[in-house]
């Protein structure tokens, strides 16, 4: 396990070192982008890190640690076990309106998670894509973006990875001075007929965000997430954003996350959120704590 943590730490240092000389608003091809006033800057999404994408073009590094505690009512697939996920995301502003998004990677460990998952551990799939911010109205604090990404099946099936998926998304953000609202919709299209016992499925996801600039160092955050499986399945058990599980048509999952961002240094946001299910279905969720740090260049 220590070697896995060291690997992730090395990747973090490498990505950080490559951008140490970049100033605020770094753009790879073009002039540095202007930054909004601090009170008008939205908090980056905290929950559903693989799917919740805002409409802003930034260059930043995001580190994540997610601790899941599972619901015991899961048809014998899970115990009252848990899972931890460590991941690192990189976003690079290619131009003022185009962004490279490396949105999925990392390492997952299950702990006493039942007869199927037990104490398995392994690497996650790799996902990356391009985001186009086609509306950037800073005067009215209104932004929209569209993106396309692909998840490569380079992860370990033992931790419910190893699936090829095409991702399409659309997002919108609107600010009202200190209040910032956002929404994202994804279409996740399975690209393979997984050999996994539990299968795979197309999915639609939706995410809503609200934060309020309370002080120069603190913003409370509320987010709601929804996951809609598009295919029937012999195993009605949804992997939501944690694993490639089919769920089955009608096994939708809704969650709410309450959190905050603490800004201790310029460009650095430290965030925490508690998230739980709003409905009672069979899913790989239960409740979770998410810790993350965002450093924006």
UniProtKB/TrEMBL annotation:
Q: Which keywords does this Swiss-Prot/TrEMBL entry list? A: Signal
- Source organism superkingdom: Bacteria
Signal peptide: which range, if any? 1-22
> What is the protein name given in its UniProt record?
Uncharacterized protein
